[in-house]
Amino acid sequence: MNKNSQLESVACGWRATLALMALALLAGCAGTARAPSDKDPFEGFNRAMFSVHEGIDKVALKPLAKGYDAAVPLPAKMSIHNLYENIWDVNRGANALLQGKAEEGLTGFGRLLVNSTVGIFGLFDVASELGMGAGDEDFGQTFGVWGVPDGPYVFLPLIGPNTMRDLAGWGVDQYSYPLWRQVDDVPLRNSLSVLRGVEVRASLLPTDRVVDEAALDKYAYIRSAYLQHRNSQVHDGKPPRLDDN
Description:
It is built from 11 helices and 2 strands, in the order H-H-H-H-H-H-E-E-H-H-H-H-H. The protein has helices at residues 3-31, 43-71, 74-98, 102-117, 126-129, 139-145, 164-176, 178-182, 186-203, 205-214, 218-234; strands at 153-156, 160-163.
């Protein structure tokens, strides 16, 4: 597939996605009488998207994740996880440097070097055994450190909870992720993308029961947890205190 064909395919996909989102927005606005919160002015749309996501998860993602979790031995699952995380250290290290965290940035690239060599292309996390802990930086956090406001909360199927700032950061992270940029074979790249999605969903299986049992309103529970977690991440675990309002 040449570059023009790829761009046309992506454009068509985005047009279809935007059309679906527009329809869901109308349905969500028509089907809810909830007053939007300050952080979630598009709550009707977001709840509609959340319902779409839950449906996809129920019929496809969760069954695939359960099958993967049951069929793949634990050592293999750990190696697959380590492989993807090793590649992600490129983004972690770059974002740490962009945030002015030189030591953490150098550690990220050091992890990449150690795990890609001694750890056999990242299949084994040797760096962590050597005391080189993985960071937790991304472009959404980088934008936050640079002073970009988080903007409205938004939930999209398959992507999940975000703010507008974090959604823009997610796009930059995906565009710059080495695996997607370096693998030219489209079927292989798509297979690796699906495997990554299934692997991530399988890692979240233990939290399903906790969320279902703790939340009277699952959507609101996830929104609150996400916003608090991201605020903590941007401020490195020391978020500013909010006033009573």
